[in-house]
Every structure is written in C-alpha cells, then in structure tokens.
Amino acid sequence: MGALIVDRSGATLNGQRLIEFRLGPETDSEQGEGLAVESAELLVRAETMPRRRRLRYTLWAFTVNGNASVGELAGACKRDPSRIWQRMDVTAAVRRWTRSERTRGPLRLLLDCSGCMGRVRLRLGGGQAARPLLRLRLQPPPPRRRRALVCDAANHGRCCRQTYYVSFRALGWDDWIVAPEGYYANYCRGACSPFLNYHSQVVEAARLERAACCAPVRFSALSLIYFGADSNIIKRDLPEMVVEECDCP
Questions:
Q1: By 3-state DSSP, what share of the chain in percent is helix, strand and coil, each rounded to 5?
Q2: Structural domain count, the chain
Q3: Which of 32, 50, 116, 235, CA to CA, is 20 to 30 A from 221?
C-alpha cells in the first residue's frame, strides 16, 4: 500500500529552511505495531527558468538531529529535466525514523543543492499543493478474515469475490498518479445457490423475471493522489472503486 506524508515545518537551521514530516491520517491504521516501510521517496518541486532547461545539479537531503545539528545523509538525486518534481530515495533514513518509539518527534530534513547557484527555486513552503512530499510504500499487513466469501478452490463455483489487482504502472499512468501504485478492484464470479424446490423456483423466477446472479453488494472508496494542472498535487476519494463483498441479491 502507499501513504503520503505532507510537510508541516517552518523551522530553520543556520538560515536554511527545514522540511518536517509527521505521520498523517493515511497511516493511522498502521500505527499499532509501527510501520513496515518497503520504500520511501522524497518529492521536491524544483523550478528553473526556461532558458535553464539544460542546467545540471544534485539535490542532497540530510537528517537533522533533535539538538538542531546536521545528522546523516538521507539521500541524493541528480536533476531529472523531464520532471518539475524531483524524486529522491530516502528509504534507509525513513526506516530508522519509523522504527523508533511512537513518541518520537517529526522527521526533519535539510536540503542542499549542488550546482543550483541561485538559479533553481526549491518550493519548501507556500501552498499545500507545492510543498515537499514524503511518499511511503508499506509492506502489506497480514491477511485478515473477512465476512465476504473470497474465491478459492473450496468454493466449488459458489458466488464469491475474486481478487483482481489493477497496476497503474502497467497502464502507463504512473507518470501522473503519485499514490497508490495500484489497487485491488476485485470482481464477483460464481453461481448463486439453487432454490429450495421446483415450485419456489418457478414463483421466484416469475416475480423477478430473471434468475438471481452473483453481484457486488458492498463497495469501498479509493483514495487517489495525482498531479493536476500546473503539476499541483491533488487528493481525491473515488467512491465505489473496490468490490468488498459479493452476494446473490
């Protein structure tokens, strides 16, 4: 699964603005035993003038200790001229942060730009849609038993929910969808139980004018985070995107 944590900082260190991240509502359901982070990516909006399209530079991120001193290197990335939002792998630093106690403070990072020479504007504040973002990919939680009948070999063709994963990367949509990388849409398949006897079957078929079919009876929403106009970050909850339960209505 994916989670996005938004910058909420206004602190500075030696005159340089820090970026600060705290666990947001997207990770609330995972906080019981700590987060199992598979990967972490820092997204920073870096703006250059049109005549500087060939400019080369490297972004560096350093952790900041609780005593306001510079700590370890969190990550680095060279400029990708095809993107306004530069992406940096900070997995190791985030894992150290999330493995600490739940009473820990925020994750503070100091950004440095080698080769910018004042020609690059790093958007470290301002509107919510332009602030730095920390994107986490979490290891899936252990499977939980659900009321919905999930399709398996033991169902013998009964109405059930079939797991089906939609990959945004496979669709070529990962260039504009930030999170998640995909989702389980699922669908219903299988047959409905026969009627108790012939007479009830005739009466019910006449009333419905059709036989009952296996269909979704419960859905859930999908939270989608994507780049909108002007490369701004947008979050939208799309209703009835995930089939949670199937039955014979």
A1: 15, 45, 40
A2: 2
A3: 32
The CATH code of the domain that includes 178 is 2.10.90.10
Residue whose entry in the numeric block shows the structure tokens 């359901």:
29
Q: Which residues contact 217 (CB under 8 A, 6 or more apart)?
A: 245, 246, 247, 249
Per-residue confidence band for 116, with pLDDT thresholds at 50, 70 and 90: confident
Q: Which of 108, 89, 88, 107 is nearest to 97 (CA)?
A: 107
Instruction: State the pLDDT at residue 166.
Output: 95
Neighbours of 84 (CB within 10 A): 17
Query: Averaged over 74-83, what is the pLDDT?
Result: 91
- In a shared domain, residues 130 and 25: yes
- Within a domain: residue 145? no
Same structural domain for residues 49 and 170? no
> Can you read off the two tokens belonging to residue 154?
């033991």
Does 180 sit behind a cis peptide bond, omega within 30 degrees of 0 on the bond before it? yes
Of 88, 103, 138, the last residue of a domain is 138
- Domain range for 32 is 2-138
85 and 168, same domain (yes or no): no
Among the ranges given (7-21, 91-105, 136-150, 195-209), the one the predictor scored with the smallest mean pLDDT: 195-209
What are the pLDDT digits (tens) for 162-173? 999 999 989 999
Output the six-digit token pair for 176: 């504009």
Which pLDDT band, with edges at 50, 70 and 90, does 196 fall under?
very low
Residues 29, 68 within the same domain: yes
